[in-house]
């Protein structure tokens, strides 16, 4: 056993469970004020994790999270107080009301980004704050709401048993532990990884079949449910609610806890919550200068701890379940459903045109590709190759013309729907999740193949686990074939360009594409990597995938493609076999230049794979 083992064990479920049980027992032997402080820590853990899910994982900003906290707090207080309903109903109501508010807000804020998103959520927080202040009949206005069932007031019952500070702490502890367990399961599954994909690039996520709006909606709903629940716990812990608790400073405090602790990790927000519950308590002078001190801590942490406290000394959070991969049965015969080459085109682009500010990037381009065929797409820089791939994959909308897949018009579909049909593309500049390992990135490719729900994944249901095992096995097989086995657990941020390219290709292959659109996949690859790429593409062809391959390297295309299409200034100037292309005067003039690159003769076969 290595010396690092104890640190890794921190993330172990059994270790955490044991720690929670010990805390639950220890609560018996400490003062009431200490136990109350512990409850505050747990509530802050929920708040910080709520920010973490939204900002650290899904990459969305909220400057108004105190608004959801207020909804949960007043919601639960009123349900239990006026409705005389039991505490669990109040807490469930807090989470559901928070979720409903988050879901509703996501329709508006899901459409905007960056500064606009910050402003809109800030506005939401301010509106909620004013509502709490002014809605006297319900919230008690500035006087607040007092006499809420709480352990301090000795009027809190759980299933007819009166509970005090210790009992309440244990309740919060159990629920928080369950929430963290669910959260861990969720973010190590396909839907949690999808949050990260949306965070890094909405376009790249869409091209894997991850819907932008739906994923953001999930993130807002989940995050708001968590902080709503925290609000419910808060209301019953203190027994009194006033508007000042839910102002802008609370939203800022939530952000600071999560950021200083470490966004995008599981342990960071927990550390942040502990720190920011104890700091103000220990340093009473904080009260007057709270904002200033938070500001300083935030600035300091950006400077010295860019990845937060967790990044400093805790192991990296894995976004993959620790399961035994089930090896895939990998038949060398093509999978069923593959058509032979003589059949109609699988993908057909008809007369596509698109302009950018008057510049015609595509002027009536048509192209078709059949199952089990590789079409090379070449042409000078700026001739429209990437634009064609962007139009076909739904990232740009053509001004004229249409795209047919299996005879159906897909020109109007959003990019994630197109990807879910099996039209998968890679990018000229690889778009991976930099903080993910190779394996985690590759698994993102499987997104369109998952059948289990997000809930099943969060509950670690057997079917969801089995599916995950199969995907892991499939991912490992492709990683192996792409020559990345030794790097499977390396974070891609630290890898050379060529490995990133191969990772992106492996991710696309795990999607089991019907059509594969590759934008200069060989650029930046070493000779052996190129050979491997060639092998992977030949294999894709054998398996009946229709491939469109943008490439400048003619020798690479010679032995690979069935057909080549040459674009120049957005128009097709040649379509046919490679040999004919070298003889075409238009192509020689526009692209190949003078016949110095062996263009007037057939290059030796096998030059690339040598
Ligand atoms: P290629 O991939 O063949 O090098 P592109 O398809 O990237 O060429 O570009 C074709 C032309 O369209 C270029 O002149 C480029 O500047 C223009 N273009 C592509 N995308 C955009 C865009 N989003 N906005 C403006 N112009 C664009
Ligand atoms: Mg390009």
What does this structure look like?
This protein is of the alpha/beta class and 610 residues long. It is 53% helix and 10% strand. It has 25 helices and 12 strands. It has helices at residues 5-9, 13-26, 32-57, 65-81, 87-109, 114-134, 136-139, 165-187, 190-200, 202-206, 212-238, 248-261, 268-282, 286-304, 308-313, 385-392, 415-421, 438-444, 454-458, 462-481, 497-510, 527-542, 554-558, 578-583, 585-592, and strands at residues 157-158, 161-162, 347-356, 359-369, 374-378, 400-405, 408-409, 423-425, 515-519, 546-550, 563-568, 571-576. It has a 6-stranded mixed β-sheet, sandwiched between helices. The protein has a 4-stranded antiparallel β-sheet with strand order 4-3-6-7, with helices on one face. Helix 3 (32-57) packs across helix 9, helix 3 packs antiparallel against helix 11 and helix 12 crosses helix 13. The chain is elongated and about 90 Å long. The model is unreliable at 1-5, 336-342 and 596-610 (pLDDT under 50).
Model regions low in confidence, pLDDT < 50 over at least 5 residues: 1-5, 336-342, 596-610
Percent of residues in beta strands = 5-15%
Rg from C-alpha positions? 28 Å
Give the averaged pLDDT, no decimals: 89
Bound molecules: adenosine-5'-diphosphate, magnesium ion
Strand order of the largest sheet: 8-9-10-5-11-12
Structural class by sheet pairing and helices: alpha/beta
Number of helices: 25
Terminal-residue CA separation: 44 Å
Considering DSSP H and I runs of 4 or more, what fraction of the residues is helical? 40-55%
- Characterize the main sheet: 6 strands, mixed
Backbone shape: elongated
